[in-house]
């Protein structure tokens, strides 16, 4: 049985880890931390977990966490990078859901996050945890950096095209919309129901923190530098991401439907829809699945890819558990067979 610790158990990704791990046959959560809720029972804060956990929140103590086989960081940025080196030195594996280890260049990280990186010497060891691209490296890792929610959908959408060298990698465009839970559980006026309900807006258009992660990851996929225009939007709902991607085809006669179907034929968590069907956020809600559709409108030279996911599952906690399964040589689908919730 894998002994699991979770740092930052009171946010949306933390409680989603708890929900998913409750049905995992090979993992047991033995420590969950929160300074603000220290001593409070987990099922008191999250009644949906009653009967599944007999745990209380505790302070994030290195000695306690070091006794775990793996520690998930479900925290804002700048937490994991301060604690991970000690946990790694103690022989613990670390899966970070924050942005601390996603960028290989610590100076670039500092430019986007506004502070020096606390453990730049550890960045070279971090493996980017997009299993569909990097599972063989994940299997050998001690430190896994889980992709952001937007980058997961966008990279899965562009990957077959970039791997085949079929699109102009200098002019990729992603217009993507995320549910409000993507902004976290902290109190912010902009996230209140009266502020987001019955409305739709763009944000971060001049530059979003996911952009350097996207260009780094897509560049790795393409094997050459890429350039992207990324426009995120806020959706007035709780869960979900819908990404619409645009690229110029170098070979407009390519059967892109067959390309995507063949590329993802053996991927358990990527579902390529039949031609003419388009993904919806509601069909992946609660599931560790990305649904993808591809079109070439009017048979011209622009390919349009649509990708949906639950930002808290395939975009965060579910993908983190998928990486844990790979790390420990378990079936990749273990604990992650939940179907999407309808209606």
Automatic annotation (TrEMBL):
SMART domains: Semialdhyde_dh (SM00859). Pathway: Amino-acid biosynthesis; L-arginine biosynthesis; N(2)-acetyl-L-ornithine from L-glutamate: step 3/4. One of its GO terms (cellular component) is cytoplasm. Keywords: Amino-acid biosynthesis, Arginine biosynthesis, Cytoplasm, NADP, Oxidoreductase. Residues 3-141 form the Semialdehyde dehydrogenase NAD-binding domain. The keyword DNA repair does not apply. Its EC number is 1.2.1.38. GO terms for biological process: L-arginine biosynthetic process. It catalyses: N-acetyl-L-glutamate 5-semialdehyde + phosphate + NADP(+) = N-acetyl-L-glutamyl 5-phosphate + NADPH + H(+). It is an enzyme of class 1 (oxidoreductase). InterPro entries: AGPR, AGPR_AS, AGPR_dimerisation_dom, AGPR_type-1, NAD(P)-bd_dom_sf, Semialdehyde_DH_NAD-bd. GO terms for molecular function: N-acetyl-gamma-glutamyl-phosphate reductase activity; NAD binding; NADP+ binding. It is found in: Cytoplasm. HAMAP family: ArgC_type1 (MF_00150). Catalyzes the NADPH-dependent reduction of N-acetyl-5-glutamyl phosphate to yield N-acetyl-L-glutamate 5-semialdehyde. Belongs to the NAGSA dehydrogenase family. Type 1 subfamily. NCBIfam families: argC. This is N-acetyl-gamma-glutamyl-phosphate reductase. It comes from Chromatocurvus halotolerans.
């Amino acid at each position: 049985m894998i002994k699991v610790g979770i740092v930052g158990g009171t946010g949306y990704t933390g409680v989603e880890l708890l929900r998913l791990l409750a049905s995992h046959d090979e993992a047991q959560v033995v420590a969950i931390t929160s300074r603000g809720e220290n001593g409070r029972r987990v099922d008191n804060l999250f009644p949906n977990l009653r009967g599944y956990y007999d745990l209380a929140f505790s302070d994030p103590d290195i000695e306690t966490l070091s006794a775990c086989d793996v520690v998930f960081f479900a925290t804002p940025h700048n937490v994991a990078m301060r604690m991970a080196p000690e946990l790694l030195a103690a022989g613990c594996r670390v899966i970070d859901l924050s942005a601390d280890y996603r960028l290989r260049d610590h100076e670039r990280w500092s430019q986007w996050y506004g502070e020096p990186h606390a453990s730049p010497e550890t960045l070279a060891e971090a493996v980017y945890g997009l299993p569909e691209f990097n599972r063989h490296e994940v299997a050998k890792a001690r430190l896994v950096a889980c992709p952001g929610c937007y980058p997961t959908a966008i990279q899965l959408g562009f990957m077959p095209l970039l791997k085949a060298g079929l699109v102009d990698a200098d002019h990729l465009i992603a217009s993507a919309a995320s549910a409000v839970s993507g902004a976290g559980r902290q109190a912010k006026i902009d996230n209140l129901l009266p502020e987001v309900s019955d409305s739709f807006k763009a944000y971060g258009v001049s530059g979003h923190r996911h952009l350097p992660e996207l260009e780094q990851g897509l560049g790795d996929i393409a094997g050459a530098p890429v350039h992207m225009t990324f426009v995120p939007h806020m959706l007035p709902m709780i869960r979900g991401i819908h990404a619409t991607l645009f690229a110029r085809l170098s070979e407009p006669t390519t059967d892109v439907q067959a390309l995507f179907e063949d590329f993802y034929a053996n991927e358990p968590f990527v579902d390529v829809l039949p031609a003419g069907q388009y993904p919806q956020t509601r069909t992946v809600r609660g599931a560790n699945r990305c649904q993808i559709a591809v079109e070439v409108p009017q048979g011209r030279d622009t390919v349009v890819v649509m990708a949906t996911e639950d930002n808290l599952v395939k975009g965060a906690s579910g993908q983190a558990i998928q990486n844990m399964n790979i790390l420990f040589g378990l079936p990749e689908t273990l604990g992650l067979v939940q179907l999407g919730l309808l209606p």
